[in-house]
Specification:
The structure holds two protein chains of two kinds. Chain A has 16 helices and 27 strands. Chain A is of the alpha+beta class. In chain A, the strands form seven sheets. Chain A has a seven-stranded antiparallel beta sheet, with no helix packed on it. Chain A has a five-stranded mixed beta sheet with strand order 8-9-1-13-14. In chain B, the strands form two sheets. A seven-stranded mixed beta sheet of chain B has the order 5-4-6-7-3-8-9, with helices on both faces. The radius of gyration of chain B is 18 Å and the shape is globular. Classes of the chains: A alpha+beta, B alpha/beta. β19 of chain A pairs antiparallel with β5 of chain B.
């Protein structure tokens, strides 16, 4: 058993997916209006659903109920090489454009003549590469045996996937068994995991409903149970791709080639159980014969694949030659070609080049939210979460701004990730406008934290680090954090480090602090000092070598009592040399200050309190 | 005719909404969890410790031992495995006075004035991750403290109510009306205190505690004064 995922008009869908990051939503004015884009037209039977923008033949974009707009965009995709010349030809186009008379092969002026409202787009290699990554990563989430068959086509080997019913009613599960070579360990995944249910659970009903209708020409020799499982499984993949703005067609058959033919004719799912029935209805053009061969077959009155195969292999080879024999073999149910197993890239990245230079934060945040939604969806499909975000901004001056965000508690929560970027961008001032945006995500397994009865832990580390970022933006990074006292005798020597409240760093308190006294260090001497930062100047009058009168800008007072001097020095061997003479002085009002004389200048260092 | 003062407004509200409590002293006594400070003389007066989900105001003049109390609270929180935040209104905290193991549980926010401190404490309280939050305004000049709008403290009270945090504010004078309790440091230390241990000094700390009902009752008097 093999399955093929086919994305029709792949290049066009890849380009339109990128366009949807800005154009569709900007037109709507509400970035959250669309929750699941590019729904299939009419599958759910909701005739009242209002639609805008038709990216592909079968697709449209569904708005939230109540949006009373209906529009469609005729879009054609041009070859990027000749895009700027009149010789550029249409490669693919939407159904709306086709309805207006546009078809592949027309030049751009010809297409515009037939459809004045036609929107011309240029083929984009990065967009297609990104789309290929998405397709493979999505397929890999469902099976380890996948093949990157062609652009927009992915073949999945279903052998080794044990479909079974779970104990919980009719909940469908599939199991990646020990027979799955290359898997390493037995790995069981449930399609009905929380993520899958949350993301695409509502699509299943639609998928079932359609497939019952679609498979009417192959009435279930496998039994209703397994067929239903297959349909549900395929529906999840289609729904997952739809979340990523791709319209996919899905075919399941006994051989890879047959599954490919099924996928190309599926709307959107076709399970071939009886090949005879399938070929009897399959047009001969679907086999893509050479034009000469097709002409011969048409003249012979052969219009379907079933009629072609009825000629017999030997007769075809004898009368039509090697090309026809290759065509026959391609659709054979006896030959199973080995798959060229592909491993999808482990990088998750979205990138966009802006047509207009970005000077304010709002458009940037708008696109970033979409990026995060897409990235988290892709990563969640692989049962992982985001551990790092890599933000890249290309400026019009040629410079770039790169920033790595380490997620304290890896998560797939869009709001949490978005807030991190938002906080950073709020305080970012670039020297030039932004022309390109890139956001990468590094996936990781979700961490689990066990809260202890007697150990405290941060309940929301991500929120805490978000707060730290806001505090750093407010006050400066050097004024927020955990103090680390330097190993020196120089007073008030410390450095600030970013607060990292994990148990590994904070455990292991000395026994003196855990004493029954409640943690008090009974050996610590005297009152504590409240420091003046920086110390301020004082005029000190000495009597018998001791401070007798102190005058500052804030107060003037005679010294009632004093202690000292305490001399200290350090770093006498280098340029950081320091030398001081400290005094503790009590003023007439009872306040006790610390004075010191450094390099002949008297400074008030703090008040004891 | 619109109410001319707060008394008329309360009367109007009582007439419109019978049963409405318009004064803090009419509120039913709430039983709150407490966080023990590790000082028996203070915990006893506070009825078990500093109230969680509420503001406690510690009023301390110069030389009363407020820095000593603050350092003790940091050590005590660290000894009980708590994380804490200190919003330092005048950047006066002496980090060298506390052991590094306790400092590793401290988020120290060094502000240069009361305005910065209020913005910072707003963020820290909204975060809700830290069980002990200290705001030190003891050294801030009176001119800065006067600029803090009174409703700000009510807003903080609403935020703290939603969490289980202990929120302690060190001030030079009474200024937080919605405080659950007001602790006034009555002790006075002179130069000789520098020659004694902190444990001895902590035992000598004298506290006067005023609860919320008393604070509410005193408030009109203080305003008129």
């Amino acid at each position: 058993m093999f399955a093929v995922i086919c994305i029709p008009d792949f290049a066009l869908q890849a380009v339109l997916r990128h366009e949807s990051f800005i154009s569709t939503r900007l037109q709507l004015g509400d970035p959250r209006a669309i929750t699941a884009q590019n729904r299939f037209n009419g599958f759910d039977g909701e005739e009242t659903v209002e639609t805008v923008s038709l990216p592909t033949a079968n697709a449209n974009t569904r708005l939230k109920p109540g949006a009373n707009k209906r529009a469609s965009l005729p879009v054609a995709l041009l070859d990027s090489v000749l895009a700027n010349s009149s010789k550029a030809v249409v490669l693919e186009c939407t159904e709306t454009a086709k309805a207006a008379g546009v078809c592949a092969g027309l030049s751009a002026p010809q297409a515009m003549a037939r459809c004045p409202d036609l929107v011309l787009k240029t083929r984009s290699a990065p967009a297609e590469q990104g789309a290929t990554d998405i397709l493979l990563q999505t397929a890999y989430a469902f099976s380890p045996h996948i093949e990157n068959t062609a652009p927009g086509v992915c073949t999945i080997d279903l052998r080794g996937l044990n479909f079974h019913y779970s104990d919980r009613g009719n909940e469908a599960r599939f199991k990646r068994g020990t027979r799955s070579a290359g898997c390493g360990v037995e790995n069981q995944r449930s399609l009905t995991s929380a993520a899958a249910e949350e993301n695409i659970g509502d699509e299943l009903q639609w998928s079932f409903g359609f497939c019952k209708d679609a498979t009417k020409w192959s009435p279930s020799p496998w039994g209703e149970g397994k067929q239903a499982l297959l349909v549900e499984w395929a529906g999840k993949i289609i729904a997952a791709l739809r979340q990523l703005d791709f319209i996919a067609q899905f075919g399941i058959a006994a051989t890879p080639n047959l599954a490919f033919l099924a996928a190309r004719t599926a709307r959107p799912l076709l399970v071939i159980e009886h090949t005879g029935d399938f070929f009897a209805s399959l047009s001969i053009e679907a086999l893509e014969p050479a034009p000469e061969l097709l002409g011969i077959l048409k003249r012979w009155g052969i219009h379907t694949a079933g009629e072609f195969f009825a000629l017999g292999k030997d007769a075809i080879a004898e009368r039509l030659g090697a090309a026809a024999l290759e065509l026959f073999e391609r659709a054979s149910t006896q030959t199973i070609r080995p798959l060229n197993i592909a491993v999808p890239a482990d990088t998750f990245e979205e990138q966009m080049d802006f047509d207009v230079e970005i000077e304010t934060i709002e458009p940037l945040l708008f696109v970033l939210r979409r990026f995060i939604e897409q990235l988290t969806t892709r990563i969640s499909l692989n049962y992982r979460v985001v551990a790092e975000l890599q933000l890249g901004l290309m400026l019009s001056s040629g410079a770039s701004h790169e920033r790595l965000f380490k997620i304290p508690a890896p998560t797939a929560n869009v709001e949490t990730l978005f807030r991190m970027l938002h906080t950073h961008l709020e305080n970012l001032h670039t020297e030039a406008p932004i022309v390109s945006l890139r956001l990468g995500a590094r996936p990781a397994r979700a961490g689990h934290q066990q809260f202890g009865l007697f150990e405290s832990a941060l309940h929301d580390p991500n929120n805490f680090h978000e707060t730290l970022a806001r505090l750093a933006a407010l006050l400066g990074a050097e004024r927020v954090g955990t103090p680390i006292v330097e190993a020196t005798h120089r007073p008030d020597s410390f450095r600030m480090e970013m607060a990292q409240f994990d148990e590994a760093r904070t455990s292991g308190l000395p026994e003196s602090l855990r004493a029954a006294t409640g943690g008090r260090d009974v050996r610590a001497p005297g009152l504590c000092l409240r420091r003046f930062r920086p110390p301020f100047h004082a005029d000190v009058e000495l009597r018998d070598g001791r401070p007798a009168f102190v005058s500052t800008l804030k107060f003037t007072s005679p010294v009632v009592r004093s202690r000292g001097p305490w001399c200290a020095s350090g770093h006498w061997w280098d340029s950081r040399r320091w030398l001081r003479q400290e005094w503790d002085v009590e003023m007439r009002d009872g306040a006790v200050f610390r004075l010191f004389n450094g390099n002949g200048d008297w400074l008030l260092e703090g008040i004891y309190d | 005719m619109p109410p001319l003062n707060v008394i008329q407004l309360r009367q109007l509200l009582r007439e419109k909404f019978p049963g409405l409590r318009t004064r803090a002293d009419e509120l039913p006594a709430k039983t709150r969890d407490g966080w023990t400070a590790g000082l028996p003389q203070l915990d006893a007066r506070l009825g078990g410790g500093f109230a969680k989900s509420a503001i406690t105001e510690v009023i301390a003049a110069r030389g009363c031992g407020s820095a000593l109390l603050l350092v003790h609270l940091l050590r005590h929180a660290a000894a009980t495995n708590q994380f804490m935040a200190l919003v330092d209104g005048q950047d006066s905290f002496d980090a060298a006075a506390v052991e590094q193991s306790a400092l590793s549980r401290l988020l120290w926010i060094r502000c240069s004035n009361a305005d910065e401190a209020m913005k910072a404490i707003d963020l820290v309280l909204r975060d809700g991750n830290l069980p002990l939050v200290l705001l030190d305004l003891a050294l801030n000049p009176e001119a800065q403290l006067r600029k803090i709008p009174a409703p700000t403290w009510y807003r903080f009270q609403r935020i703290v109510e939603e969490s289980a945090a202990v929120f302690i504010v060190f001030t030079p004078r009474a200024m937080i009306s919605p405080a659950q309790a007001r602790v006034t440091l009555r002790s006075r230390f002179d130069l000789g205190a520098l020659e004694r241990t902190q444990d001895e000094l902590l035992r000598e700390l004298e506290f006067q505690v005023t609860d919320a009902r008393r604070i509410a009752a005193d408030e009109p008097l203080r305003k008129s004064a």
